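Retro notes
What went well: the complex prediction finally ran end to end.
Inputs used:
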Amino acid sequence: MSDQSTGSGGAPEERVPAMQRLLDNPFLLLFMGVASPAVLYLIWGVMELSQIPLSP
Amino acid sequence: MAVDTQAPSRGFIGASYRTCPETGLKVCSQAEALIKVNAVVAVVFLAVGGLFGLMVALTRWPAVHLLPADWFYLLLTAHGADVLLFWIVFFEVAVLYFASAIILNCRLAAPKFAWLAFVLMVVGAVLANIAVLQGESSVMFTSYVPMQAAPHFYLGLIVFAVGTLIAVFCFFGTLVIAKEEGSYEGSVPLVTFGAITAAIIAVFTLASGAIILIPTFLWSVGYISHIDPLMYKIIWWGMGHSSQQINVSAQVAIWYAVAAMLLGAKPLSEKVSRMAFLMYILFLQLASAHHLLVEPGVSSEWKIFNTSYALYLAVLGSMIHGMSIPGAMEAAQRRNGFNNGMFEWLRKAPWSNPAFSGTVLSIVIFGFLGGITGVIMGTEQLNLIMHNTLYVPGHFHATVVGGTTLAFMAITYLLVPLIFRREIVFKKIAQWQPYVFGAGIAGISLFMMGAGTLGVARRHWDIGFADAAMSFDYPATAFLMMGLNGIAAICAALGGLMFVLVVVASVFFGKQRTAESIAAFPTLPKTGSAETVTSYGSESHVKLPGTIVLVSVFFVAFVLYYYVNWKYLSEVWPLS
Amino acid sequence: MAITPPQNRLWWKEPLSGVEITWIGVAFIWGLVMFGTMVSWHFVGKQNLSNETYRIDPNAFGEKVEAMTERYQVREEGDTGVPVVRPPPGSDIYMLSRLWEWWPVLELEKDQTYRLHLSSMDWQHGFSLQPQNINVQVHPGYDMVLTITPDKSGEYAVVCNEFCGIGHHTMVGKIHVVDKK
């Protein structure tokens, strides 16, 4: 099962597409996966809370 | 594929291995031992937390009303922590080690730290349980401030989270080792990629947990005077909801794994499946906003963008998995010879194998009951008619129990022979277990959602309001729903008991797997050889009429139920 | 298989089947439709939460509730001793939550619009208006303003649906909606 994996498609010198290189890089994905919710959810959310006005 | 050397051999860095007689994979003995202990502890928490859950459901059954109020709230808190957190996360750590060291055929990184992680997790989980059972921390799983639990409740959760974080880094370290030592060629297997997704979400989850739980702990011991309740809630749900997204990723990875191991199914397209996981990595965690849709102080812009996982791109990911997994099963089955008509591939699937039936039930319950309702409840305005009603636990019992727990149970039936190297005992009970458990959970989910639609509050000891100064009566149907929920809970508890019985008996008293028994009852049927499955390229794609029908049914159900709820919403008081 | 590395080293370059492309397209468009539905309801729908919220000290909020109650109290609710308040249509009305009551009881006119202020004196509570099934979270320190227009007369209960301690299940309030006299 483990010995069937050698690639058959594409000549060895053919460049790996950029998207595939991204998906093969767990640490880049880790960065994106933490940065995305940190900015869009946490930071944006906390900014909204900090802008709530005082009761008139 | 079968190499039958049982004797452990030494790798060049001093890690010891055995070669699996069923798969030919090298199995790192440290990884194997850690998978075992994490899985065993997970099952202990499942048993304990499940029992608490049964008592909660029996209390909600108006005719039974088992527990007094204080015990109800206490055990509801313990139920949430033990099954939602401890059972699932211990098992997920086992899945991470399996998806890295075992599947990638390499040694586990930093096993000493992995053991440290395990010890910390056990200590933290036990500490939190002690705090809850002492009675001073009945704050529910969410522990919203300013309600305060005992300091060791928060401390237990923090210690548990630190342990989990160490385990996650052992997983990432193992990926590095596998790549450096060249234990696989090209890209990691799809199942490992799913596990990477789960681990990435886990990092964000645990970081959010640390950000909020550490100050909350300091507040509980008096070093901090005030925790803002809205701030708490936003950051807490960065942990609380994202932790469920770890489950989703792990369980989807398991779906792919079981389909591959039992049917020889191969993803229809590596590209599509991995892009679907990428959508999870980028956007799934935004859905933490589902819990803040009727909160003061956060704008509709924030709510709409986050609750929709950025234009529903993570839902797109789930819908892709929802097609590509049955599609891969259908393709494999058709190649295996079940090619008649629309559904022979499904009818002649190994339904008596609990690993398979559990996986399929997990997909169906998660998709139809959990997924659709989750998206609907996570719609900004629709949340108004659902927030904090029993609809919420109805929904997440379909996702976390029907989806995640059932998927974890299913793969356990493969882990016991492969990792523990024991025969499954009580085969008949094992065969029925996923059906009993699945039926119970589907019932719990449907009846609680039904009661929630009628307005019944969640986390509520007495929906008859007997002790309230002002009275109110929920519709009689709601009481019927809660009775049916109690019956369904008994069914689910029975299914859970069957699982625990089979697993414990197999692990401790099952016969050792031998060469003969492996040959007679292979855990991984031979159907899945590389020749029988499709190779890539549009020419060799098999037609998938059955899958097309299944996803069409799903889509129609989704659209109809979505707009039914808008209709309900349009009938309540105008508010702006 | 999904548990082995992809057979094709350059799997990114594999073509997709028509079924996959179609399903991805359908799912993507459905996502846009759901997103659009949520946005457009803010313009065409009648049930939206306002974004109007203020920070407020719980005691200051309590004083506003007291002031309204003193001014517009019409009677007491049964034998509970809780005042029933009938503020004029269009005005700012207040309901506070605390362990374990909603206070006071409000009497509103059908089809009139009110600015309802909700806040908590202590822990978080859940404002669950039954049998309408409108559910809003109530926080201490924050004054959430909802512009409501009750469009059916009758007696409504306010159930607490956020767990708030051992008396949580006894926390029920009332809103009466009456036809204009």
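What we learned: The longest helix of chain C spans residues 18-44.
What to try next: split runs per interface for comparison.
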